[in-house]
Amino acid sequence: MMHGDTLCTQDIKYLKFRKKARHWFFQKLFLLKSLKNRRALAQQYRDVSRNHTQHLPDYVMDVTPAAVEAVMRKHQATHLIHGHTHRQAVHQFLLNEKKVTRTVLGAWHDHGNALLCKDNGSTQFILL
What we know:
Layout: H1 12-21, H2 24-32, H3 35-54, H4 58-61, H5 65-74, E1 79-82, E2 89-95, E3 98-104, E4 113-117, E5 123-127
Parallel strand pairs: 1-3
Antiparallel strand pairs: 2-3, 4-5
């Protein structure tokens, strides 16, 4: 299970921002600001992000198959669950001649949702 943003390897601008925003120095500077200023900056970043994603083709904002396969190979996973793209779906494909599954969780904009994983290996999306 992972967030899924690092699987979107064609969204270079986002990945550069992600690297900067997760750096300890950037975070320290951010936390030195007043709560009011942090909230304003967060809103500004959300606005920039919304504008950025509105003008990108879908393939840039989606995961790249090579990134998915690399993560699944690295962790010897047969089922990867992630969000970030908000394109709820179940994808099955062959990896190293084995049937594997990638499950994408949906968005939380209008309502919550979850994935129920049962002991028998079946899964079910649930609206909250």
